[in-house]
Batch of 2 targets.
Target 1
Amino acid sequence: MGAKLRVYKRRIRSVSATKKITKAMEMIAASRVVKAQRQVAASTPYASELTRAVTAVATGSNTQHPLTTEAEKPTRAALLLITSDRGLAGGYSANVIKAADQLTERLRAEGKEVDAYIVGRKGVAYYSFRERTFVESWTGFTDNPTYADAKKIGAPLIEAVQKGTAEGGVDELHIVYTEFISMMTQTALGDRLLPLSLDKAAAESDGQAKGEILPLFDFEPSAEDVLDALLPRYVESRIYNALLQAAASKHAATRRAMKSATDNAEELIKSLSRLANAARQAEITQEISEIVGGSAALADATAGSD
């Protein structure tokens, strides 16, 4: 019986140590998600104004630009998948990968080939394990992305769109990431970045949402040159905002997962403590029974000798 009690005590110590780790990770994730929320809030106005500027140029001119003009028969699309570098975040990466698979199937059903670009070790591991090809990958910064990371990701994607399928490029650019809605709600979604949907972009801009009509402009040196300058910034800002949203979502998911692990550890410690108490009581009862039995045997032996 003493051996069983030692096993319970050893398991309690082990679970208690795990609980300390998960509690610390929960607190770290909670502090990081607050910082990520602030970064998302700070980057969103910039992305919105860039979208508004690009929409104004595209609707205020008759320029046919490769980044705003729909291909007559699109045959190839690039898909940027944003996952995490680390685990311990529940179903965070699994959900966004599932959304990417669904978007890939839809694009293929439309007759388009899909070139995958991946952010995060989880996505890279998923594609590598299943022997799926991808064009390029980026890792090591998903917890705290910077604008430089967004520029690094956006450069080959913009180049692929500018080339077009005739030169080995793509006709469309899609992005799949996890949108941060609140501490308890994060949603994996897919969005098309290029070609820019002017109707959607106009609806998303603040002025258009308020019923403001976009004016006509004269462009210097030309509308095409302005689009050449603005659209890369638009793509980079949207990718940066998506990276920040994904980082905030990942930290929130980690916080929830670690809180759940901490709560489970507490419940397991209580259960093991009850079992340890029962084992100790059984051990004490057995010792008392042995003492009483020994005393009775001694009394019988003494009476017999008399």
Target 2
Amino acid sequence: MTALFALLTSLLWGLADFGGGLLARRTPALTVVVVSQGIAAVVLGAIVLATGGWSEAGPRLWFAFAAGLVGPVALLCFYQALALGPMGVVSPLATLSVAVPVGVGLVLGERPGLFQAVGSAVAVTGVVLAGGPQLRGTAVQRRTILMTLVAAIGFGTVFALIAEASTTVTGLFLALFVQRVTDVVVGGAALVVSVRRGGAAVPEGGFRWGSLPALAFVGLADVAANGTYAMATRSGPVTVAAVLASLYPVVTALAALGFLKERLRGIQTAGAGLALLGTLLLATG
């Protein structure tokens, strides 16, 4: 069951990433974050009420609140990077988020094993190569790589905080609810500021209501992935779950290849592959 839940996590995260990046090409990324996470918050609120999750409230929820402050920044950077593309490079680079929990372990006195040391070197090499020859070209290429790395750090921080926010399944739902509500409040405030500064909240021609199901899917798939990952870690070895769940960029890359007909340069493909390999080594360490 561990493998099944972990692979399902990869599928859900991969499709959510693809959908979010695709939507951000037609709708402001901040709007995509606020609407998708808002829908997820409503569904999570219903789940919390149905499962009696409020009984799990306690000081640990401050970790969920902190995750909610970091989450919108990470998602905004990630969706913007996916919108600029190519997704086949951006998504694997974002898996470097696993380095954050490793760093937390170092601060707490842990020492990296051989796999972690090798994984760090491989991952950094992948970051350099994934930019390809265009890394020194236009500012868009540099900005895409930078936003992806910021998103990776943010995701890793969120994962570490959520891990501390609950110890039970019902507590996890409550923590995810608190995180999503905070996401919406912070993201909504940022959207208001953006509009007052002349930014757009909706595409030209108005909000496309036909995109609402896709936005709902992005938010709910992200939440479902968190749930299946939690079940994977509770039903078997965390190492196995982490490795298999880290394969979600493959889903995003395949979706981009199949639906968008993306083609990568050889050096970019190699760099993205190395980044993913480095991430798997870090996770198994």
